[in-house]
Amino acid sequence: MPPPPPLGFGRSRDEFRFDPAFDDDALVAARAALTQGRWGAARELLVATGDTWDRRGHRLVVLAENPSSAVWAEDWQIAEPDSADAAALLACATVLRATNGKADPDAARTACHAAARLAPADPTPWLSLLILARHTGTDDEQSRAFDQVRGRHRTHHHAHHLMTACLAERRLCDGDALFHEVYEFAEWAAGDAPDGSPLAVLPVVAHTERYRVLAEAGSKPGDPAESGHWTTWRARQSLKSAFDWWLEWDGRDHPRLYVDLNFLAHAHFFQGHTAEAAALINRIGPYVTRAPWAYPDLNPGKAFRAARGSVLGLGSS
Fold this sequence. Notes:
This protein is mainly alpha-helical. Helices cover about 65% and strands about 0% of the residues.
């Protein structure tokens, strides 16, 4: 049985934020400094991160999301032209600008390849290329970028989530086919990962991403509660395995743990597992993610508050 939420849950009903930095205080501080043009804090953060690839990728993406990050990364690169960290930040920031239509995708690709040459073992420039390929690339470009990431770090969390989203968007004509390639990919990746890997949650992510695609296309109801998408044997099996992973391993040291917890809480809530959803939502605390609560086109804050109010008895309005 899942642990119940503790009595006396005292958070304000609106005390959560969509901040991808989560509880990484060092990242929050470096991001704030970078916003003001002080890239030295980002430099120190990335040096301290080293080759912990999941954490490095997570921190670089969060740092790159600020609209001014590309400018400050260029300043950093001028000061330290051989810095692989400066090149990786510039590449990621340029990619994110390109996905928003504010930079040339070809320039973003060039920046990624330049960063990759400075640090051949680093999967992060290839992660940036995968982000770009998801928005502007072909299926083959997505697969090649993913293979490059996985060849350097075979359990890369963010890359597997991105590839799952890419695959979920393919073969819409298959509808809710039980053997769609996204399910096969997620089950393969989860099975290939070592014990305790957060990729155990990937089949749940695959199921949720496929719901998003089908609902956006009008093949599933836009209200997840009415979709029936989480009542299949595949959904039940995937969710049980993923929840067992959380109970046994917790994953508390993983930089993207809250991404997994939000997907798990969302799926348990819409499968009607109140106790499990309550435990997960309580564990999430203020670290709410837009995905999957926004799927397919919902207000994520309202959707999360409604779920939290239902299972924890907090106000949902």
